[in-house]
Design goal:
By secondary structure, this protein is α/β, with parallel strands linked by helices. The chain folds into three domains: 191 residues, Phosphoenolpyruvate Carboxykinase, domain 1 (3-Layer(aba) Sandwich); 274 residues, Phosphoenolpyruvate Carboxykinase, domain 3 (Alpha-Beta Complex), CATH 3.90.228.20; 85 residues, Beta Complex (Phosphoenolpyruvate Carboxykinase, domain 2), CATH 2.170.8.10. It is built from 16 helices and 32 strands. Strands 1, 2, 5, 6, 7, 8, 9, 10, 11 and 12 form a ten-stranded mixed sheet that branches. Strands 13, 14, 15, 16, 17, 18, 26, 27 and 30 form a nine-stranded mixed sheet that branches. Helix 11 runs antiparallel to helix 12, helix 11 crosses helix 16 and helix 15 runs antiparallel to helix 16. It binds guanosine-5'-triphosphate, sulfopyruvate (SPV) and manganese (II) ion. The site of guanosine-5'-triphosphate (GTP) has 22 residues, from helix 9 and strand 19.
Length: 602
Amino acid sequence: MIKSNGRATTSSLLMNWVEEMAALCLPDDIVWIDGSIEQRDELRKEACRTGEIVELNQEKLPGCYYHRTHPLDVARAEDKTFICCRKQSDAGATNNWKAPEEAYAEAANYFRASMRGRTMYVVPFSMGPVGSPFSKTGVELTDSIYVVLNMLIMCHVGQEVLDTLGNSNDFTRCLHSRATLDPEKRLIMHFPEDNAIWSVNSGYGGNVLLGKKCLALRLASWMAHQEGWLAEHMLILGVEEPDGHVEYVAAAFPSACGKTNLAMLIPAEGLKSKGYRIWTVGDDIAWIRPDTDGRLWAVNPETGFFGVAPGTNSASNRNAMLTATKETIFTNVVLAKDGTVWWEDGDGDPPLEATDWLGREWHPGKMDDKGNVILGAQPNSRFTAPVSQCPSISFRREHHHGVPISAFIFGGRRNSLAPLVYEAMSWNHGVFVGASMASERTSAQYGKQGEVRRDPFAMLPFCGYNMADYFKHWINMGRVVKNPPRVFHVNWFRRDKDNNFLWPGYGENLRVLEWILQRSRGEGRADKTPIGYVPANTALDMTGLHLPKGTMKELLNVDPDAWLREADDVETFFDTLGPRLPWELRNELEALRHRCGESKNR
Ligand code: GTP
Ligand code: SPV
Ligand code: MN
C-alpha cells in the first residue's frame, strides 16, 4: 500500500495518471509538492540527512545548498535524447527518433520498480505565470529531492497550479527517475503527440528539470509550430535609454556561449556617461508571439537561472554573482572546508582546503600523474538561483504579454570568419543567418570540445520537430507580423594569430547592442559587405575602449573566399535536412555565393 500525504487535487485525470505511474515505479511514498516554505524546508532537511545535498555556510550563503551529480552525469545527453512521434519524418534529420510504443516499452524496463525504497514527489508546475493564457502547465513525478528543490526555483510550483488546472487534461505528463544512473540506460524521451516526457537514469539539470529544455523548448516548439508562435533558446534583455525608453532584444547563442552574461550586462565604464541601463527579462528561453500591434512579443517562461559557474565572477557578471548569494543551489563546483563554494575564474582566491566536484581532497594547483592541473569545478558546473534576486531583473518579467522585440541576435563561438557584428539584409536573409549558425562545441554537451558544429538558431539539441519545417515556420513568422524585427549576428569570440580574443566582450558588448538598436530604428551608419551590413568606420562608439591599432578592422573583416568555403559547408548541412528544406534558404545561399564572387572580382 502506497502512503501519500493526501489528495492535493480533485482531478481524476491527474490522480489516475499518478496512480498509473506509481504502479510502474513502485515508490514507498507519494508526496505532493504544495509550494510552501515549510515543505521546502522539510525537504532540504531530508536531503541533507541522506547526503543528497550539503548545507552550505548559512551565515555567508543563507539558504544555499550544494550538490554533486554522478561523475558520468554532468551535461545534457544529446545521444540519449529522443523525439518519439508517430512519423519519423516529423522528428526530422537532426533528432534521434523512436516510435512511441517502442520508446515507452524500452523506458518502462528502466522505470519498473525504480522507486522502490524511495519517495515519488508530485511537482505541479507552470512555465510562465500561473493562469496566464501564454503559460503551460506540467506535472513532474520524480524520485529526486534535488530535482524538486531546483524546480521550486526554476518555475512556479505548487497548489496554486493544481487549483488553476482543475480537471483539465491540458498538462504535460513528466516522469523522471534517477533509477540507477547507468549512462547506458539513460533515456530522455519526448512524446509530443501525447504531451508527455519520460526521463530515466540521469540526475543532471537539462535532462531532469523537465520544465526547462524538454517542455519549454522541445515540446513547446512543436506546439508553437502548430499554434503559430515561437519557442526559442534565447535570452531577452531591455536596453533603457537615459530618457527612460526601453527597447528589447532577443538573442540565441548555443549553450555556454554567453546568454546569461549578455542578459545581465553591466555597461562598460567608457559608456557609463551615456546613462544606459540593462534590464534582464530572461537568460535562456523565450516564448514569442505575434500580437495585434504587428510586433513580436516575448516572455521568459522560467523563474530561475541555471547558470554556468566557471568564468562567472564580479568582473564578468556582477549581477549573476549578486543573484547567487542566497537561496541558491550549487552543483559540481568546489566545496571549501568553511562551507563556501568556488570555481575556476570565479571570485577571490581558491580555498586552500576543499573538496573538488568529485568529492576528492583538492587544493589550488593540484596536478595529476601527467602533470596536468586538476580543475576543482566541473566545466559545466552550475548555480540555480531565483531570477527575482537579480539586481537587473526587469519589472516586466511577469507581465502576461511580455515585451516587444526590436531585434533578433544570433551568435556563436567562431575563432575566425564571423565578424564582431553584421546585420542581415532582409527577414529571409536573417532566417538564413539563423539557419546556418555554427559554433565550437562547449562543456554543456558531451563530445569533442572546440569542434565547430552547425547549430541552427542554437536549437540543434532543442528543436522538437523537423528542422526544415522549423526554418519554414520562421520564414512564415516574418510574414504574419507587419514589422518583423531586424536580424543580426554577433561573434564575441574571434581570435588573433596568437589565439587571444580580439574583443574584450562582456560589458563592452553594449557598444554592439547600441549599434544594433540604432539600426533597428533606421539609424546607425553601416557598410555593405557580401554577408550583410557591418558598422561603418567609427559607427561603433568606442569611448573609453582603446583597442590595439588594426584590431577593429580585423574584428569587422569579411573574407569572401572564407565565406565561399563556409557556403559550401552550409550547403552540405542543408542537404542533410531532407526534402522539406525551404527553397527560400537555397535562394539565400546562392545569393550569398553571388555576392562573395562579385566582391572578389571587384
Ligand atoms: P547555457 O546556460 O548553457 O545556455 O549557457 P549561456 O549561453 O547562458 O552561457 P554563459 O553566459 O553562461 O557563458 C558561458 C561562457 O562564455 C562563460 O565562461 C563566459 O565567461 C563566456 N562568455 C560570456 N560572454 C562572453 C564574452 O562577451 N566574451 C568572452 N570572451 N567570453 C564570454
Ligand atoms: C544549456 O545547456 O543550454 C543549458 C543548461 O541551459 S541545461 O539546462 O542543462 O540544458
Ligand atoms: Mn541553455
